């Protein structure tokens, strides 16, 4: 099911709740950690361009479906001249106590199409704005789980997607910061 989750975001008409961080990142390196409840059905943790995250959730699902083929159908070669740009967002897919590592970039993957690994107690996310990359870590052992490029041509926000129920506890590095609980539908989030 986790392998299908990559397609789930665009091929099904499901209710998806998106939580976008209220502070956009525009420079430097930023790190935060979160705990995802292992009983969560499906949670995506990551970052994205603020403008594209809003746009992504306002576009009808049929337009971004994998069944939609933007190819004109002719072989003019025009499609080959486009420069490979980094994606506007990057998410780590988590569900049922496991993490899906995909795209052949996973350090622990022997399968280039992806694998699953057990969910660590905390996941660390590090965004290097100037380098245009995001890294996901086991925040307990500091072992890197996955790294990928992300478009940093504008403000980038932390983002979390909830599908089918889940809970996430955001942990800041400030030790004396009070946590407050926010409930979104049947989802819980501490920040």
Summarize the helices and strands and which ones pair or pack.
Elements (H helix, E strand, L loop, with lengths): L1 H10 L5 E4 L8 E8 L5 E8 H7 L32 E7 L2 E4 L13 E4 L4 E6 L4 E6 L4 E7 L6 E8 L3 E5 L9 E4 L2 E4 L1
Condensed summary:
With 191 residues, this protein is mainly beta. The protein is 9% helix and 39% strand.
Q: Given the C-alpha coordinates, what overall shape results?
A: globular
The portion of residues forming beta strands comes to 35-45%
Question: Might you state the CATH topology name of one domain?
Answer: Jelly Rolls
> How are helices and strands ordered from N to C?
HEEEHEEEEEEEEEE
What is the CATH first-level class name of one domain?
Mainly Beta
> Mean pLDDT, rounded to whole units?
75
* CATH homologous superfamily assignment of one domain: SPRY domain
Would you mind describing this structure in some detail?
InterPro entries: B30.2/SPRY (IPR001870), B30.2/SPRY_sf (IPR043136), ConA-like_dom_sf (IPR013320), E3_ligase_FN3/SPRY (IPR050617). The protein has two helices and 13 strands, in the order H-E-E-E-H-E-E-E-E-E-E-E-E-E-E. By secondary structure, the protein is mainly beta. The protein has a domain of 116 residues: Jelly Rolls (Sandwich). It has a seven-stranded mixed sheet, with no helix packed on it. Strands 1-10-3-4-5-6 form a six-stranded antiparallel sheet. The two termini are 29 Å apart.
């Amino acid at each position: 099911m986790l392998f299908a989750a990559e397609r789930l975001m665009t091929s099904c008409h499901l209710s998806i709740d998106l939580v976008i961080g209220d502070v956009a990142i525009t420079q430097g390196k930023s790190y935060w950690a979160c705990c995802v409840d292992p009983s969560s059905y499906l949670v995506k943790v990551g970052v994205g361009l603020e403008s594209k995250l809003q746009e992504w959730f306002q576009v009808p699902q049929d337009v971004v479906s994998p069944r939609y083929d933007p190819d004109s159908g002719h072989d003019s070669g025009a499609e080959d001249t486009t420069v490979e740009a980094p994606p506007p967002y990057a998410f780590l897919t988590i569900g049922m106590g496991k993490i899906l590592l995909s795209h052949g970039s996973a350090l622990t993957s022997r399968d280039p199409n992806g694998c699953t690994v057990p969910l660590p107690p905390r996941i660390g996310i590090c965004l290097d704005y100037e380098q245009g990359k995001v890294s996901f870590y086991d925040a307990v052992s500091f072992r890197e789980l996955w790294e990928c490029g992300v478009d940093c041509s504008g403000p980038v926000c932390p983002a979390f997607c909830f599908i089918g129920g889940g809970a996430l506890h955001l942990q800041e590095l400030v030790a004396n910061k009070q946590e407050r609980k926010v409930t979104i539908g049947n989802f819980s989030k501490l920040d």
